[in-house]
UniProtKB/TrEMBL annotation:
Transmembrane segments: 17-44, 56-77, 84-104, 110-131, 152-171, 177-199, 224-249, 255-278, 290-309, 315-337, 349-370, 376-397
Annotated Major facilitator superfamily (MFS) profile domain residues: 17-404
Name of this chain's protein: MFS transporter
Top-level taxonomic group: Bacteria
Organism, scientific name: Iodobacter violaceini
Key words of the record: Membrane, Transmembrane, Transmembrane helix
Length: 412
């Protein structure tokens, strides 16, 4: 795997921070696209002339592409190395966005199916970022710092999403959708250059800090699948808050759009801070599954309370949405760290691909199903689904693995 670069001189322990920054930048570039394009929903519907049903199809397509391809990218990362896969994914994603800027703008009559299929392909290409950047960070950091580092990498997701949400609507209004796709392509190319320049294979001395891999593939391990499926279930309340909390507060509580925006941005920022805290905390206490289980229980309780109080005054709804949303953001880095550690060094990419598959499948299904659930029941039914999913995740999680000896403090 990239032996030429594995033997490069002068890649000392401090180079791991450049690797982390590069991985986080790649993750942010992907998130700006993945989370930024849905923010343009109202403009997409108006400019392309889509119906609301067609818009729902288009906005769910990128998550579908990610979910369908994550495991394949994980397998390829383990086989070919994180550097090659991350470079290939970022460059191909940038080229796809550049092509979309020329052919898939409202200047041409575009059926929803054409834009949707393009976004599925874009998601499938962008999925390479998750496993490859995660594996790179895992192999450069020792166990005593790994959860903190992975949580920092995962914090780039809401940060990139916030950048896309702030920038893309302004770009679309000022310069059209061609400028939107070109800007996102530029982000990918900048991240690809940083990957080429800074992301190299970790020295062999750092790999033993990941426990030795069993010969059994993560695809065949029940404990790996339990953690991955629990992660997918925990994604349900997160996506329910991110995609439909605004609609709930606007339609049911008559909150202004500015108030809703402040609330959702606050949830993202507090959730990002919680990701960093949870990674550092579990590095110190070596209790990742226990913390994820507690987060699942608390998220489930707050969402169930929201279901019971869905007709209560707006203040109660806002408080419970904040609690549910922040908690549902807090576990990502810890879960990615734990599943890669469980799988071991040679299978970590595959394991990250498995959990990425369950997470992005939930990210696709949750907003797709909520309108149907609303039609069949009420907002109480939506938050009931979110709460029960979180509680099911807490029950499904595997037990805490055997505590390994503490890592040597001077390891990189």
């Amino acid at each position: 795997m990239n032996h030429h670069f594995a033997n490069k001189p002068a890649l000392g322990p401090n180079h791991r921070w450049l690797v982390l920054a590069t991985g986080a930048g790649a993750q942010a570039s992907f998130a700006a696209t993945f989370a930024g394009i849905p923010v343009l929903g109202i403009l997409i519907r108006a400019e392309y002339g889509f119906s609301t049903i067609e818009l729902g199809f288009v906005l769910s397509c990128m998550a579908l592409g990610v979910g369908l391809s994550e495991i394949l990218w994980g397998l390829l990362t383990d086989k070919l190395g994180d550097r090659l896969i991350l470079l290939s994914g970022l460059l191909s994603m940038g080229l796809m966005l550049a092509l979309m800027s020329l052919t898939l703008t409202p200047d041409h009559p575009i059926p929803a199916q054409a834009l949707g299929l393009s976004l599925i392909l874009l998601g499938a290409l962008g999925a390479s970022v998750n496993a490859s950047s995660g594996r790179a960070v895992m192999t450069w950091f020792s166990d005593g710092k790994r959860g903190f580092a992975m949580s920092l990498r995962q914090t780039a997701v809401p940060a990139g999403g916030a950048l896309g949400a702030a920038l893309l609507p302004w770009l679309a209004n000022q310069s059209g959708f061609s400028a939107v796709f070109q800007t996102l392509a530029l982000f990918c190319f900048i991240s690809a250059f940083a990957t080429w320049r800074y992301l190299h294979e970790a020295p062999a001395s750092t790999h033993p800090t990941l426990q030795k891999s069993s010969h059994k593939s993560p695809l065949l391990r029940f404990d790996i699948w339990r953690l991955a499926l629990a992660s997918g279930l925990l994604t349900v309340p997160q996506m329910a808050v991110l995609t439909f909390a605004g609609v709930f507060l606007h339609d049911e509580k008559q909150l202004s759009l500015s108030s809703i925006s402040v609330l959702l941005v606050s949830i993202q920022l507090c959730g990002a801070a919680m990701r960093v805290w949870s990674g550092h905390y579990t590095d110190q206490h070596r209790n990742r599954n226990k913390l994820i289980r507690v987060i699942g229980l608390l998220t489930g309780i707050s969402a169930l309370l929201l279901a019971l109080l869905s007709h209560a005054p707006a203040l109660w709804a806002m408080i419970l949405l904040c609690i549910s949303g922040v908690l549902a953001h807090a576990w990502h880095g810890v879960a990615y760290t734990e599943i890669a550690t469980m799988a071991g060094a040679s299978h970590s990419g595959t394991a990250l691909g498995i959990t990425g598959t369950t997470i992005f499948t939930s990210a696709f299904l949750t907003p797709f199903l909520i309108p149907y659930l609303l039609t069949a029941s009420s907002w109480g039914g939506v938050w009931l689904m979110a709460g029960l999913s979180a509680l099911a995740a807490a029950l499904l999680l595997p037990s805490e693995p055997r505590i390994l000896p503490k890592p040597v403090l001077n390891q990189p």
